[in-house]
């Protein structure tokens, strides 16, 4: 096994978990979803059912893109927060976290996959 690759994968998982925490703390982000293509998500679901992959695998995808990292995250946002403002805040949170790790050349892809319009206590409903 290539220990450099293995160490990089472990660091990527750790950073992905930190990114998830950062995104969950952004006002307006109401949920995170597994990133990746439909085929990748179907394969991932099969691997989980077969016990080949843990359920605690990060939802955020962090990959080495050669010239830097690529970060993919799929999010649900609350309608009252506005998708644009929420995504800008989320991008800033990810960028700040990566800069703190001295990973300045990352390509960050954030996608809104769900807009929640239900009242919630976090958004002023009773």
The number of domains is: 1
CATH superfamily, called what? Answer: Cation efflux protein, cytoplasmic domain
Report on the biggest sheet. 4 strands, mixed
Residue stretches low in confidence (pLDDT < 50, at least 5 long) are 1-7
- What is the number of strand segments? 4
Strand content: 15-25%
N- to C-terminal distance: 54 Å
SS field, number of helical segments:
3
Q: What is the CATH-assigned architecture?
A: 2-Layer Sandwich
* Helix/strand class: alpha+beta
Shape: globular
Question: Which whole number gives the mean pLDDT?
Answer: 79
Work out the radius of gyration.
16 Å
Task: Provide key terms for this protein.
single chain, 126 residues, alpha+beta, Alpha-Beta Plaits, four-stranded mixed beta sheet, 3 helices
What features would you describe in this structure?
- This protein has 126 residues and is α+β, with helices and mostly antiparallel strands.
- The protein has a single domain (3-123), classed as Cation efflux protein, cytoplasmic domain (Alpha-Beta Plaits).
- Helices cover 41% and strands 23% of the residues.
- The chain is built from three helices and four strands; from the N terminus they run H-E-H-E-E-H-E.
- It has helices spanning 3-24, 38-49, 83-100, and strands at 29-33, 61-64, 69-78, 107-116.
- Strands 1, 2, 3 and 4 form a four-stranded mixed beta sheet that branches.
- Strand 3, helix 3 (83-100) and strand 4 (107-116) form a beta-alpha-beta unit.
- Mean pLDDT is 79; it is low at 1-7.
